[in-house]
Amino acid sequence: MAGREIFVSYSQPDRAAAAELVAHVEEQGIPCWVAPRDVTPAADWAAEIIAAIAAARVMVLLFSESANASAQVRREVERAVHRNVTIVPFRLADVMPSSSLEYFLSTQQWLDAFPPPMTLHYARLCVRLREILALPALPPPPAAPSPPAAAATPRQPVHLDPVQLQRIELALASHMGPVARHLVSRAAAGTAGLEALIERLGAEIDSESERRDFLGACRAIVLGGDPGRGPQNPT
After folding, report:
1. Which residues of 114-146 are buried (b: 16+ CB within 10 A; e: fewer)?
2. CATH of region 6-133, choose from 3.40.50.10140, 3.40.50.300, 2.30.300.10, 3.40.50.1370
3. pTM here?
4. Half-sphere exposure of residue 97: CA atoms within 13 angstroms, side-chain side
5. 141: left (phi over 0), alpha (psi -120 to 50) or beta
6. All residues at 6 or more sequence positions from 94 whose CB lies less than 8 Å from its CB, including other chains
7. What is the mean pLDDT of the chain?
8. What are the tens digits of pLDDT across the range 27-77?
9. Start-end of H helices in the chain
10. Contact 231/217 with Cβ under 8 angstroms?
11. Of the candidates 176, 177, 200, 170, which has an alpha carbon nearest to the alpha carbon of residue 188?
12. CA dihedral 160, 162, 165, 167 (to 10 degrees)
């Protein structure tokens, strides 16, 4: 099947490496032509390869010891040069090209596929191919969805001692009058703890000295003081 912009050239001993490379490149949305996968059944093999090279814009050459000695690879490279196809040598091993290939490849930008991991080298190759083909870069993968936020645990009402609440109400009433009952009832419904309740009620008193008296009286109540004594100044 001709008409794909990337032609992958390799020697038979590197067939598995070629298949892996094609899989990674095509995962990035860059279709490749590679034999024998894309050779039309019953077609003339040589004619198919010539047509595929002619239709390609880039040849990715898997370069190795075996590719260096392959007459077929050399013919494919010669054909690509003749057609002005850009060649990207992808070295699978630290091998220098033979004199016949060096003539065609000396001006090309080489990419090394070592050391591992290979995924890094495939990524560099795909970046290079996109540059040559003027393809836009792929958007970054979507971020993993955040785990659902835990549902807020509803505040459990704190069961306050009704006797203490009554004494606190009396202490507040000595400063604020009858409205103290409403303030204590409202604060007790939305406050988690006796200390927080006392602080909240103290904030309702504008006078600083009276607020200190109220807080002192409430602390005496909490500690079991006599409510009949009324608000006491803290010592």
Report:
1. eeeebeebbeebbebbbeeeeeeeeeeeeeeee
2. 3.40.50.10140
3. 0.59
4. 21
5. beta
6. 112, 114
7. 85
8. 999 999 999 999 999 889 999 999 999 999 999 999 999 999 999 999 999
9. 15-27, 45-55, 65-68, 71-82, 99-105, 118-133, 162-176, 179-189, 194-202, 208-222
10. yes
11. 200
12. -140
pLDDT in tens, 149-177: 655 555 444 567 788 888 888 888 888 78
What is the maximum span of the chain, computed from C-alpha positions, in angstroms?
112
- At 1-27, the pLDDT tens digits run 445 899 999 999 999 999 999 999 999
The whole-angstrom separation of Cα 164 and Cα 225 is 10
Q: Are 111 and 86 in contact (CB under 8 A)?
A: no
What does each C-alpha distance from 198 to 4, 83, 155, 158, 235 come to in angstroms?
79, 89, 18, 14, 18
Q: Angle of helix 194-202 relative to helix 208-222, nearest 10 degrees?
A: 160
Domain ranges of the chain: 6-133, 162-229
Q: Which two three-digit tokens encode residue 193?
A: 């703890």
Question: From the centroid of its chain, how far is CA 63?
Answer: 34
